[in-house]
Specification:
Layout (H helix, E strand, L loop, with lengths): L6 H10 L5 H13 L2 E7 L7 H20 L4 E5 L10 H17 L4 E3 L7 H11 L5 E6 L5 H10 L3 E5 L14 H18 L2 E5 L3 H12 L4 E7 L4 H7 L4 E8 L4 H11 L2 H9 L5
Parallel strand pairs: 1-2, 1-8, 2-3, 3-4, 4-5, 5-6, 6-7, 7-8
Helix pairs in contact: 3-4, 6-7, 7-8
Bound molecules: flavin-adenine dinucleotide.
């Protein structure tokens, strides 16, 4: 796994990442399927400016789609705009996004769009909106961004499929909430909006208070609600939750594990949480 990094980084990253190649991701997805959990598979890599990196990424997603179909894995794929060429041009990104979702639709595989830094949200949303009516696509919305309530108003009118997260990035004060508690308050506001106006959405968080509130709201709701977590953070809870609710786990794989792992390290905040998530009884 990876070229750089010391032993501790690799140990931590190994908990969060399925492995270096797509077969590792498929194996982990099958393990979670055996626990009634759907996998959301992401090939690690972002901010590409070289055509060869983008071409390789597309090939890997196309192969992954075939594995998912042929081996009947219960899994979606989830792609990042900047791994599909957004830093080269919007046209390049849209062309590559459409190529992947068309192949995925042909194999009955659902494609999610991850959301990255705030400056890419408009391009991600417009590419998604062009495709939403054709189905089998979903998009991530981040509660740290002040614009997200307006984005949800627009998207829910079109029956978009939404994954609600707090957001793994930061942005300026005029665009985003600056404190964890404001971001969490906004998460509740957006989640309530989805329970009133959404159709199909995913509550993607490890925040226990939010999860409990969503379970309560879901008791009397007719919405299609899924709970989702990242691999290696609260696997045990995900398995328990899957006895009663629809649950997905985000399964990243690939060599480029460093940016993803640093985002997770930052969120863990302190060593105790990292160690707890490392030594939780789940072996995968
Ligand atoms: C399925 C899924 C898909 C995602 N997709 C995107 C995306 O496309 N774009 C994006 O910006 N973000 C994405 N994220 C990440 C998300 O935005 C948050 O950065 C991340 O989930 C941490 O926030 P939280 O909601 O768990 O709340 P937090 O307040 O960060 O965490 C709540 C609690 O969870 C535990 N916890 C959280 N992280 C860790 C950790 N690393 N180790 C140990 N314990 C931890 C702690 O107990 C913490 O108190 C995704 C998250 C999930 C679950």
């Amino acid at each position: 796994m990876g070229k750089a990094g010391n032993a501790i980084e690799k140990l931590v990253a190994g908990r969060w990442i399925a492995g270096a190649n797509d077969r590792d991701a498929i194996a982990v997805a099958k393990y979670f399927n055996s626990k009634k959990i759907r996998a959301l598979i992401n090939f690690l890599g972002e901010a590409y400016t070289k055509e060869e990196d983008i071409a390789k990424t597309i090939d890997i997603y196309l192969r992954l789609i075939r594995y998912i179909e042929n081996e009947k894995v219960i899994a979606d794929i989830t792609v990042k705009p900047t791994q599909l060429g957004l830093l080269i041009s919007n046209d390049e990104f849209v062309k590559n996004y459409k190529k992947i979702i068309n192949a995925a639709r042909g194999s009955k595989v659902f494609t999610w769009m991850d959301m990255e830094e705030a400056e890419y949200v408009d391009d991600a949303l417009s590419a998604y909106e062009e495709e939403v009516d054709n189905g089998m696509v979903g998009i991530c919305i981040q509660s740290y961004l002040k614009r997200s309530i307006d984005d949800l108003r627009k998207l829910t009118k079109r029956d978009a499929v939404i994954r609600l997260v707090k957001g793994a990035y930061s942005a300026s004060k005029n665009k985003s909430f600056q404190t964890r508690s404001e971001t969490t308050d906004n998460y509740y506001k957006l989640m309530n909006f989805l329970f009133e106006n959404g159709k199909s959405f995913t509550i993607a968080t490890h925040d226990l208070d939010i999860i409990h509130e969503a379970i309560k709201l879901n008791k009397n709701s007719k919405k299609d609600v899924t709970f989702a977590m990242l691999k290696g953070i609260r696997n045990k809870l995900a398995v328990q939750l899957a006895e009663k609710e629809k649950v997905s786990i985000y399964v990243p794989f690939g060599e480029e594990w460093i940016p993803y792992s640093y985002r997770r390290l930052k969120e863990a905040g302190h060593l105790k949480l990292i160690i707890r998530s490392l030594f939780e009884s789940q072996s995968i």
